[in-house]
Amino acid sequence: MQDIFGHLAALRRPRLLVRTARIGARDYSRRRDLRRVLGYGTLPKPAAAVMRLLDLERDHNRRREAGDAGYSLTRHVDVLIALMGEADGLRRPGLNLA
Predict the structure, then answer these.
(1) pTM of the predicted model, to two decimals?
(2) Which Pfam family, just one, is annotated for this protein (predicted)?
């Protein structure tokens, strides 16, 4: 688990991108938002979800930095919102992210 938090702490993204995701994370709903980001089906456990979200986020960030025409800012923010929400759920296990 400590490794997951190490990966999260190492993320360096533009301030505006992070600020936007933080605002969105206030209303994070695991059932609604995680399904939209990861696809429908059984939701993974929080630690597994964070690892999948980290992979997705790295891919979005790589596209952003490369100026890729397929980059979607909205999708990137959605992934960051889910990542922040899931990480918060790991830090505070009693938190209801329904």
Answers:
(1) 0.85
(2) DUF6477
